[in-house]
Automatic annotation (TrEMBL), chain A:
Region forming the signal peptide: none
InterPro entries: Bact_StressResp_Reg, STAS_dom, STAS_dom_sf
CDD domains: STAS_RsbR_RsbS_like
Record-given protein name: RsbT antagonist protein RsbS
Automatic annotation (TrEMBL), chain B:
Residues of the Histidine kinase/HSP90-like ATPase domain: 37-130
Pfam families (UniProt xref): HATPase_c
Domain of life: Bacteria
UniProt keyword list: Kinase, Transferase
Designated name of the protein: Serine/threonine-protein kinase RsbT
Sections of the chain in a coiled coil: none
A Gene Ontology molecular function term of the record: kinase activity
């Protein structure tokens, strides 16, 4: 058994950055740890940064899809970020589409994706005022 | 065809699968494969090494850089003494699995490499050989 992957908490988001080549049992452990942390912290979002991964094979792909499905059931959204272009090409050719998994190019875009999309009252008023001025 | 270098690795644990990926990546780089071809080859090797572990009870991997005088390539062979594959056509079908996987290991890895051959019979183990040449 290797070391577990650290899970960071930022506000209501959990951030996992996979920096090493994952062993299968470590990947399964991460899946369990994430489910546990979501329920314990009430996190609404999970960002998995895979920019450190040189390959995503069917096992890791299945783990990512499972984390997305598990977090959805636990009322949290998962975004996988940082996939390398060569990894994306290989995954598609392998037959892994990661259907049901949201992706973003980097952590920043992933965080933006998880932000609640409802507008604040202030934004609505400002937009209305701007529109009035234009007329 | 002259052989430049060769490495043999035994696969009996999850950690060995990671070691196979790392060794195969080094050889694919030596063979001057493009980054995408390297990634595809390493991903295929990861699938085949895991298959060997899960279905064949472990086995041996042999990886080498090959040359035909004009081009270089990387070749890897995966041999186990497991139960063999009774219906090869079925095993090479996308989505078919005798275990708990996604059924992409054999069919998917075949798409990721330049050459793919498989030698198996019920009770006689399985040997898969893959190769990709530099362009």
């Amino acid at each position: 058994m290797t070391e577990s992957v650290p899970i960071l908490k930022i506000g209501t988001t959990l951030l996992v950055s996979i920096q090493v080549d994952l062993q299968d049992d470590t990947a399964l452990q991460l899946q369990e740890d994430l489910a546990d942390r979501i329920t314990r912290t009430g996190a609404r979002g999970v960002i998995i940064d895979i920019s450190g991964l040189e390959i995503v094979d069917s096992f890791i792909g299945r783990m990512l899809a499972a984390v997305a499905a598990i977090s959805r059931v636990l009322d949290a959204q998962t975004v996988v970020v940082g996939m390398r272009p060569a990894v994306a090409i290989t995954m598609v050719e392998l037959g892994l589409s990661l259907g049901g998994v949201r992706t973003a190019l980097d952590v920043e875009r992933g965080l933006a994706m998880l932000e609640p999309d409802e507008e604040s009252a202030e934004d609505v008023l400002l937009a209305a005022a701007a529109e009035r001025e234009q007329r | 065809m002259t052989t430049a270098t060769l490495e043999r690795l035994a696969v009996s644990t999850d950690a060995d699968v990671v070691r196979v990926r790392q060794a195969v990546r080094t050889f694919a780089q030596q063979a001057r494969l493009s980054l995408v071809d390297q990634t595809k080859f390493v991903t295929a090797a990861s699938e085949l090494a895991r298959n060997m572990l899960v279905y064949g009870g472990g086995g041996d991997v042999e990886v080498e850089v090959v040359s035909d005088g004009r081009r270089t390539g990387v070749r890897a062979a995966f041999a186990d003494e497991g139960p063999g594959i009774p219906d090869l056509d079925l095993a090479l079908t996308d989505g078919w699995t005798s275990g708990g996987g996604l059924g992409l290991g054999l069919s998917g890895s075949r798409r990721l490499v330049g050459q793919f051959s498989i030698d198996t019979a019920p009770g006689a183990g399985t040997r898969v050989e893959i190769a990709t040449w530099s362009r």
